[in-house]
Here is the input.
Amino acid sequence: DAKTTQPPSMDCAEGRAANLPCNHSTISGNEYVYWYRQIHSQGPQYIIHGLKNNETNEMASLIITEDRKSSTLILPHATLRDTAVYYCIAIVIQGAQKLVFGQGTRLTINP
Amino acid sequence: NAGVTQTPKFQVLKTGQSMTLQCAQDMNHEYMSWYRQDPGMGLRLIHYSVGAGITDQGEVPNGYNVSRSTTEDFPLRLLSAAPSQTSVYFCASSYYREPYNEQFFGPGTRLTVL
Here is the structure.
């Protein structure tokens, strides 16, 4: 699975869009980009995933560059409850998904 | 649906003691896995299972045993606890077929080994 690189921490004001970058320059053609987050000490929570097209769901949007070497998770209107560690993971979608969690980005939403 | 449940929430063991961490899911997921998370670190995969009767090792399997006799349950056994196993343990489950394989995580078991 491709290695991903994320900034260790970011801040965002409440109500603004939070844009979390992720580099995955060695991603292969059959690897998807997944985002999970971990709020405080809870179990991780799935957010969104994509292959090469931009994706949107009720939680977030995922923008993947055309060359697939990087992506951005967008939380459109961040709230205090979005304060969490966000993990970007590149993984093949078929079969057993052995997730490899790096250090992630600690996102702090400020009032 | 209760989702993924884990028991106990907290546990303190002495070195050399054994115990079983319980994990259950009611979503009929084929795939289940165990992760550990040390302070300030990401999660690391211990063992996983793609169905009843099938288990395999993850990144850090030493000191842990698993079995999968039913679809619903995936217990993690510590045979002889060591202080290095002090960690938070998360169980996860998902479908095994694309694209419905987002993983659902339990609330975790916080284990301290003295």
Remarks:
- Residues 88 and 102 of chain A are 8 Å apart (CA to CA).
- DSSP finds no helices and nine strands in chain A.
